[in-house]
């Protein structure tokens, strides 16, 4: 695998564009500031420089390159595989109810006997991430690793998009399938938040919309914990996600709020909030957030690495808002735990897609999620 990482800062590429890497089995990942959709010069250049390559990307809440965070850039990784084959697929998601079907459609399009992994990016504003993942899992054979993330838009929650045909498009999910025995893929996902307050019963919900906790309007109850931060909703809700414990009492998932509805006192989340599950508020623990990033990298076994390694880091925007000037510490922690020379790109997201330590993919929120790609 040949690998290049470069950043467009609005004027030029930091390391140029290596056109000789263009091929049908070249993956070009572009993570972009939202407003790059209105000034697509850099994206147009990518599309014309790599006409045969598989070009994927999305809007972000901050772009990751190495151990640095950038805003307003197009951050790009170009990976030309020697023996691994690539194929892309997409499906529209114009409403949350289409999420399952979109996931299943993408999975069916990418099916193949030697399919090893699927990397997915989705519009982050309209999707129900839980249903998207269920759709993918429903049509993929066991053993195929699914990872990815939901596009971001800072703390604005106004506009998210993915690259479809190299152009920014809202209301879609895109994916690349990776095929062949020489592919080496790793994944890890960890949080680091602390729970607090009483555990409450989800007494009314529908999909990813939460209406009642313990028989009380969910938004009304949630606001009691926010105090002066209420005025900043929904952005300030990123500081206090929910831990959801459903059928497995030993395992919980974190859910981030995407929108609120004052009229019916409901909250819309990035993934499902099952009725009958248990919910508990969470808050930040700075040291544990950074340690969580390190733990995510430690989950990946790369002792036998014999070539370039690309790390795709997808971290939740809520972590960035909490860590602030310390945010780069979690990026340093991931690279410290990966082989020397690993190149890292990624973005701050509205949701992260990854298995736990093993098993099928799930939607996560407020985690650092890593996908590593290599070939040997």
Strand content: 35-45%
Q: Give the helix/strand class.
A: alpha+beta
Q: What Rg do the Cα atoms give?
A: 19 Å
Mean pLDDT: 95
The largest pleated sheet is described as: 8 strands, antiparallel
Low-confidence stretches: none
Gross morphology: globular
Whole-number total of structural domains: 2
Helix content: 10-25%
The N- to C-terminal Cα distance equals 8 Å
Question: How many H/I helices?
Answer: 7
**Strand runs, count:** 26
Keywords:
alpha+beta; 26 strands; 40% strand; six-stranded mixed beta sheet; 7 helices; 376 residues
Give an overview in words.
- The chain contains 7 helices and 26 strands.
- β2, α1 and β3 form a beta-alpha-beta unit.
- It folds into 2 domains: 278 residues, no CATH class; 90 residues, no CATH class.
- The strands form 5 sheets. Strands 14, 15, 16, 17, 18, 19, 20 and 21 form an 8-stranded antiparallel β-sheet that branches. It has a 6-stranded mixed β-sheet with strand order 5-4-23-22-26-13. Strands 7-12-8-9-24-25 form a 6-stranded mixed β-sheet, with helices on one face.
- α2 packs parallel to α3 and α5 runs parallel beside α7.
- It has 376 residues and is of the alpha+beta class.
Please outline what is shown here:
This protein has 376 residues and is of the alpha+beta class. The chain has seven helices and 26 strands.
